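Title: Prediction job returns without error message
Component: structure pipeline
Severity: low
Priority: P3
Assignee: unassigned

Description:
Job completed but the reporter wants confirmation the result is attached to the right record. Sequence as submitted:
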Amino acid sequence: MLRSQEDPSDSAEETTGSRARPSAPGPSLSSAPSVGTPPTGLAGEVSRLRTLNSALLAELEETNRGVVALYSEEHQLALTLQRTFLPETLPQVPGTELAVRYLPAASETEIGGDFYEAVETPAGLLLAVGDVMGHSLQAAIVMGELRHALRAYAAEDHAPHVLLERLDALLSRHRPGWTATVCIALVEPDGAGLRIANAGHPPPLLRTASGRTAFVQDHGPLLGLGLPQPEGTRHRLAPGTSLLMVTDGLVEKRGTPMPEAMERLRRVTADGPRDSEALCDTLLDSFGAQQRDDIVVFAARFTAD
C-alpha cells in the first residue's frame, strides 16, 4: 500500500541505528599564537634586520654628507677660478665709457664658462664676450685658457675675425670636443669706427644717441669646429653710440623663445638709461639676476672727446 508520507517507524529506525559520533577535539585557544607576535626564532631575525637597517641608514647619511661637502668644495673652487680668470679692472680710455656685470649661476648645480675681456691693443680697444659650452669645473678652466689666449693674440695686432680663427685653432688642437661662442668688437684708434666679428654668440646690440637700436646679426660658426670665420662688419661710431654685449644667461628662460627674449632685450635697452653703469643695472633688474646660467652684461658708450 502506498504511503503519502514517511512512516514514523522508518525515522525511528534511522535514528536508533545511527549513533552520535564524538566530534574531533578543536585547538585550544590558550595554545594558539597571539596575532602579530612572531615566533621566538623569527622575532630574533626581525630584530637583527632592524638593527642592520638602522646601521645602513646611518652609513648612507654619513656618506651623503661627505658627497655634499666634496661637491660644495669643488663648486667653490670653480667659482674662485672663474673670478681669477676674469679682468680685475676695465681700462680707462678717453672717449669710452665701459661697464660690466658678471654674475655666476644662481643654481648650485651650474658652473658656467662665461667670460669678458677689455684690453688696449695696437689696433685699438678690444672688447669681447664669450661662453664656453658646458657647466663644470673643466669648463671654467677652458674659459680661462681661451681668455688668456685672446689677450696674447690681440697683442699681435690681428683683425677680429683672425683672432677668432686663432682661438678656433687653439680649441680644435688642444681641447678637441670643446666649443665656445665669442663676440669681438674692436674700436678703431681714432674712435671713428667699430669692427665686429662674431663666432656663434648672441648678437651685439648698437644704440644711437637718439635711442635707435639694432642687432648686428652677421656671425660665423662656433669656435672649436675648425671652420673659417667671415671678416665681420664695420660700423661708424657717432658720438653717443652705445654697444651692448651679453651672454645668453641674461635672456635665456625656460618657456620663452629666444627671438622673443632678444626683442625684449632690444626694447629695454632702447628705453634704458644712457649711462653704461645704469644700463647694466637696469638690464639685471629687468631680466632677473637669479638665473640658471652665468650672466655677463657688457656695455660701452662712445662719447666725443
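Comment from assignee: result matches the submitted record. Helices lie at 8-17, 40-85, 137-154, 160-174, 258-271, 276-287.
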